[in-house]
Every structure is written in structure tokens, then in C-alpha cells.
Design a protein that fits this description.
The protein is an alpha+beta fold. It has four helices and five strands, in the order βααααββββ.
């Protein structure tokens, strides 16, 4: 998307889609080896004997890929944004090698700052699903967005 969107261009109910995000075994193991080295993420044999019955991706890996997809898809165009917080992060279903993830981003609130009217906060519900439409992760993301001159 070219150009930029401002607070006034955004409304509750707007939706953007992301993905596909392909989950590859080598990437799952590489990420987890560095950042979340638990057997269920890095050891195929141990993972097969564990409660998930096989290798699964670290939830942090999935979150990082969803962030990368957000940056690459640039749903707000060239708008400079600042992430303020993530609420209600849920890893709801294991993500496995071979899964292909899609992301739905929906605006659930838009609020102009009373103390700094040159900006506001957009709340977006992020829902990540696999190829079978099973929700694997969800969270609420608060993002600071510039407003047009008031």
C-alpha cells in the first residue's frame, strides 16, 4: 500500500488479512534452538514421546512471524506506528511443521489521545489460524498511530 493512513482513516470493523506463513521444520528448530530450546521445539525424538506427539513451534516463533507479516503487508501503508502493548496473548493450538498460517487483523477500537491530539491508539484483534481454520494464536495489539493536524 502506498501512502499513509492516519487515525481518521481507521474505523472499528476494518479487517486486513495476512499470510500465508509456511511453518518449516528446519526453521522451527533453528528459532527454538536460539530462543526457546525446549525438547518439544528442538528434538524430534523427544517431542514424539511428549504430550504433543511431535515437534511443535515455539509460540514466540509464531508471534515473531506474525509481526514480520504485519510489517511486510503494511496494512497502514507508510504510516509510522508504535506498538504500545499486547494483551490477552493466547497460544490456543500447537503449530506443527507443514502448517500454513493465515492472519486476520481487525480493528476493535480507535481512540484519539486527549492529552496529545496529534495521535491516537488503535486496538487490533489478531487471530492466527492454520490451514484447517483452527485458531492457533490470538491477541489484542495496541498501536499508536499519528492523527492528521487538528
Amino acid at each position: 500500500m502506498a501512502g499513509a493512513l492516519f487515525l481518521e482513516d481507521l474505523a472499528v470493523g476494518q479487517v486486513w488479512h495476512g499470510g500465508p506463513i509456511e511453518m518449516r521444520e528446519a526453521d522451527i528448530v533453528r528459532f527454538a534452538s536460539e530462543f526457546d530450546p525446549q525438547p518439544m521445539h528442538i528434538d524430534v525424538d523427544a517431542a514424539g514421546k511428549g504430550r504433543f506427539g511431535g515437534l511443535i513451534a515455539s509460540g514466540w516463533h509464531v508471534a515473531a512471524l506474525v509481526m514480520r507479516d504485519f510489517v511486510d503487508k503494511a496494512p497502514f501503508g507508510d504510516t509510522p506506528m508504535l506498538g504500545l502493548k499486547v494483551d490477552d496473548l493466547q497460544w490456543r493450538h500447537p503449530v506443527r511443521p507443514g502448517d500454513v498460517l493465515s492472519v486476520t487483523r481487525e480493528i476493535v477500537d480507535v481512540t484519539r489521545s486527549r492529552s496529545k491530539p496529534d495521535r491516537g491508539v488503535v486496538s487490533m484483534r489478531m487471530t492466527v489460524a492454520n490451514q484447517d481454520a483452527v485458531v492457533v494464536m490470538s491477541f489484542l495489539n495496541l498501536i499508536q498511530v499519528p492523527a492528521r493536524t487538528v
